[in-house]
Amino acid sequence: MSLLTGLLALILVIILAFVLYKVVKSVTGLIINAVVGVILLWLINLLDLMQLVGRPDIPINIITVLICAIGGIFGVLVTVVLHLLGIPLTL
Question: Which long-range contacts (CB under 8 A, 24 or more apart) does 28-37 make?
Fold first, then answer.
């Protein structure tokens, strides 16, 4: 019975390590995507890219930062499109 218990414990540890690896890997990707989104929002305002199409800078507030952090690059695109359409992202 001791050998069987040890074998089951080893299998459980291997499964747990695999699941933990997958979780950490996906969280790392989400963090990188969030940072890239917020940096892109900041760069758009820093380089005055919205001035090229005759619009003021995108306001950096809690809503735009959350959209860019959660959505990443796609969130920045959504924010830019909404800003170009004149839809305010404010409270």
Answer: 33/72, 33/73, 34/68, 34/69, 34/70, 34/72, 36/72, 36/73, 37/68, 37/69, 37/71, 37/72, 37/73, 37/75, 37/76
pTM, full prediction: 0.73
The distance of Cα 4 from the centroid of its chain, to the nearest Å, equals 44
The per-residue pLDDT for range 53-78, each reduced to its tens digit, is: 999 999 999 999 999 999 999 999 99
Tell me, rounded to whole angstroms, the distance of Cα 48 from its chain centroid: 23
Task: Categorize the per-residue pLDDT at 1 as very low, low, confident or very high, splitting at 50, 70 and 90.
Answer: low
